[in-house]
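Quick one:
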Amino acid sequence: MQGLESIRKSFKTRQVKYGGYAALMTLAVITGLLLVNLIIGQFPLQVDMTENRIFSLSPQSLQVLDGINTPVRIFGLWRPGERMPLPNNRDYIEDVMAVVNLYTSRNSNITMEVIDPDRNPAFVMRYDRDRGGIARGSVIVEGANGFRVISPEEMYEFSPTHAGLTLTGVSIERRITSALLFAGTGVTPVVYEITGHDSLSLAALGMAEELELDNIALESINLLVSPIPASASVLILNHPQRDLAPAEAERLLEFLEGGGRLLVMADYNIRELYNLNTVFASYGFRLDYGILNEADPSFAVFDERSTWTDVLLHDITRPLMNKNETPIILFEALSISTVEPRRQTIVFEPLLRSSSAAFLRTDMDAASSARLPSDIAGPLTLAAAVKDPSWVQDDDPQARIVVIGSGTLLSLAVGGFHGNRDLFLNSLAWLQDRPEAITIRSKSLFRLPLRLNTAQIAVFGGLFIFVIPFAFFTAGFVTWLKRRHL
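Output:
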């Protein structure tokens, strides 16, 4: 009896009471979590926690989806239940299905079906127009106006390393939305590259494939021998080594006056772009001869002739505002300035800008690295978008120009600076009035190192070295004092 009495008294001690309360609280929390988990499991809720929203559709894709009112069928060429492993612990089929399900759940006109190519060779041959074969894992998007075949290699981006190819980006949304645009309209816009100026062709820079993936066809034209076709949605002049001829300038002016669209990427390698600047002067701006020298070390990349630009808000640059995710790097850039007088109907909107410490070196024979009286002081406009007239009604023509003061913009894009490529593609989308094509870009799996200035280093250093450790120490010390008197 005494043993039972002592056991009964032990349950009345302070230690047992507090321990019992703690056990009951733990049991209550665990039970609550289980109930919440069971309730949430009854709803088809999914949250995209990936840093670049890989499994979420952009507003532009949603805009395209809302406009589809005819049946579109998507076919996946793989065996049901099949897996196709990728680097970075990814599975190709899981990635594709996760994104395609976003399309089918948004619009009931879009359906998805998995077809085993081994058991249905006749089905595959219907879509193999050139009889070159369709790779296993391909996706076919078919609508009322045609179809597109997307190979597995087009769904991702890879970069070469010493160990082979490394997976750096996911392009599933970009490819499927582009295919939906084609399948829904059957129309492929045509852009023309102006030739005859010893420039490096866009095809040689790999841009023909990029344009094809955006449902854009690339052709070339020599303005000295050919008139501008009515089918030309945009003219592109990339890194010219020679100025325009007067006859070319006249054709460009006539094209723009009729509401044409022009994209120019040029730098200092030509001392004077007299005829090209004559065209630009009609729209209130000019290219300034010189080389940008970036004196602010937080803007300079490799040296003072390469700059990590400031990105200004515009429809073209809105998805490129995060410099750490999509940096735009310009090398040996020149600046763009406005001229007077100019028509009041013209709108000139800067896209990229240097730091205030930068300057444009206009005397190429000067050896000094310091700023000279002849230099043009920053901040300098390095890219701009121009439209005239600023407002249009009904089918009135509106001329649009995008000028970028760097002829090597796309060469750097080939070197891995995807922000440069996206600036080029977004500029074309804006010039063609295709807002749905802007920002639907490959979603990078690669991250550049975080760049911090001196003040940010001091703030974060103090936070993680002093403030947070001191807060943990104080909380622990207070808890110890309280428990000491239990």
